[in-house]
Amino acid sequence: MRTRADVVTGNNGEYSFEAQVGKYCVYLKRDWRDEYCVGDIAVYDDSKPGTLNDFLTAPDEGDLKPDVVKRFEEMVAQAQQSAGAAAGNAQQTAQDVAAAAGYARAAEQAKNDIDAALTGTLKMANHLSEIAAAGEKAQQKSRDNLGLKSAATMEAQSDIYDRTKGRLAIPGAFGFGCAFLPEDVIRFDTKSDFLAWVRNALPGEYSVAGPYDIIIPDTRFEGDAQHPVD
């Protein structure tokens, strides 16, 4: 199954969204144009909440492809054989000693090849720790490069109607764009109940329902209603 979702950041670059278990291609675009791919992410059952950078730089099970693993095993076997041959021939004649030295050099080269292969695999895993060690300015620059700005360090809303200043908006904030469930519908039995709710409701969009002539004159209404945002 393929799923597409667009997440819009706030004025300060803040964002928040929930992703189901699966693998996703991540694209960034400014003003709904100039789209470009920044990488792939994988979400697992035991994945912990984190920033988009956390998931983009996390090692994936596909990072070590079968051909890489096979080559790694071949280099290890070659290093072991070369080291054993070097040790077995150390007491031979001068010609054998020269050959043993060649084996030793081959073993050292195999070790270097192994180190190079592992360095490429581990580079991404070490990226975040390197940024953290470089200090706050480096961390902020990394967030800016991903278009996150200060959003990565903000605390998210406790619910969609949370209006605490400085908090990161969650999907469906203030009800706008929220997919309301049946249990989210606010039902009114009398016009006085509806008017009392209008006077006290927080600004936002709500799913409301009421019998004939309660919400809209001469109409039985069930749908979305907007309370002005100050």
UniProtKB/TrEMBL annotation:
InterPro entries named in the record: Stf-like_N
Q: What positions does the domain Lambda-like tail fibre protein N-terminal occupy? A: 1-98
Q: What is this protein called?
A: Tail fiber protein
Species whose genome carries this gene: Shigella dysenteriae
Q: What is the lineage of its organism?
A: Bacteria, Pseudomonadati, Pseudomonadota, Gammaproteobacteria, Enterobacterales
